[in-house]
Amino acid sequence: MNQSIPGNSTEKLTKDTIIKLAVCVGLAAFWVIFLWNFWDKGIYALGINAFVFGALFFGFFVWVLFKKGGYLKEDLVWIVPLSLIIISFLLYDNPFVKVVTLFVWPVSFIVFYNYAFLNNRKEKSWDFSFLFHLFMERLLAILGNTGKSAILYLEFIIPANDKYKKIIARVLIGFALFLIITFAVLVPLLSSADATFARAAQAVREWVTDLISLPLVYRLIFAVVLSIAFFAAAITWGKEFNYSKKEKETTSIDSIITGIVLGGILTVYLLFLWIQISHLWVGSLPFDFKTTENLVKSGFWQLFVLTLLNIFIYFFTYKKTSSFVQKILLAFTAASLLLLVSASHRMSLYVFFYGFSYEKFFASYTVLYCALLFFWLISRLVIHKKTDIFKSTVILFIWMYGIMMIFPVEQFIFRSNVAFSQREDSRIRLSELSMLSPDVLGLVKRYEAVGVLKKETFDWNPWIESREKKVTDKKWYERNVMNLLYIQYSIKR
């Protein structure tokens, strides 16, 4: 079936086009009805509503991919983790993670979805050329198609056929004359003749005034903009993506220069490890919190910088130099892995004595991500087949992020800190967990009831009241599974 060209009035609307238009209107209407409170409540307004919207939005674009014949089984490698992220809105509050998700999910979706439409995608790597054409062509093309999208909506609402146009015009004129006669002549005359009718007419006028209010106008305008934007994205990204691969992309880089740079950096790393060997493997942490924090964070930032450096080096040197330089790169990665092990050891001691927080949990998770990444990078150097390093790095990230999103992060943090705090040498202050969301509301009340939280002179009642208010202030569609479980728990109590 040939799709009509947006903006070309000589083309008829096809069945698929009409379905897409209707779905985009439905998505926009759903947003302005069930997600509008996001502007006031922020992240806490995203629950069942965000899950349903995300599932419908994502499902619609995957359907377009399937209809266009671009779907492959390997696309599950990004469809599954992106689906897990959407499911997380149904499960938890966790405002800290959801803020990050509002950036991570759209960017990941745009990259992977457009990659799925890339012509001969198995032969093209994720490099600067791919990213440049993705963001400069596919994203900017949406702006060019918004006008076409709006025109097609007008053609859908007002058919091009002159017969139907005349019928619609006559219907609109009839309604306009009816409203003018009713409110200008009939209602005033009948209201003056009967007081009861006058009160009823006044109530109707007030209802109409409330209905046609400024917030409603805002919603309608926003819904129209969203509908046009969604359809523009669907017709833009639902086409084949192609660009010419430049010859220089396959050229090798100078092995001598690369070998000297890599060898020099490796020597510096080995020297650093030799000098630091006496206190890299600390068995305990100093009591002073600031000293402990500096000790651990220095190791973490070593990890972070080295990870970026390794990705950068791999991106420009992997399989582009002589075999000897590739062996230096292997040794360089192994040395980096030793620093990673040291940093992870420090972090484990930090958590063991001082407990988890958002920062320490995600720092630990980053350590795990980098460990898997380093092991994988080493494995790539011992096999002959070339791998797309950047693409695989992103896929590993999105999978680990998706798994983390359905993991009960806040419950894990709270339970772990309570367990670690039972040790005599523990330096954990449970009061610091007051930054957590209603995800742990039921846990706090249960632990407080059995006296676990009474070891510190911290009053949890204000925190409980504020989190309960966040839950009760939500509309039913803004709640999530953790909220519903707490409500059920409170009813049983």
UniProtKB/TrEMBL annotation:
Keyword Metal-binding carried by entry: no
Alphabetical keyword list: Membrane, Transmembrane, Transmembrane helix
InterPro entries assigned: DUF4153
Keyword match Cell cycle: no
Transmembrane stretches, start-end: 18-36, 43-64, 76-92, 99-118, 130-155, 167-190, 216-235, 256-279, 299-316, 328-356, 362-382, 394-414
Pfam families: DUF4153
Name of this chain's protein: Uncharacterized protein
Organism annotation: Candidatus Azambacteria bacterium RIFCSPLOWO2_02_FULL_44_14
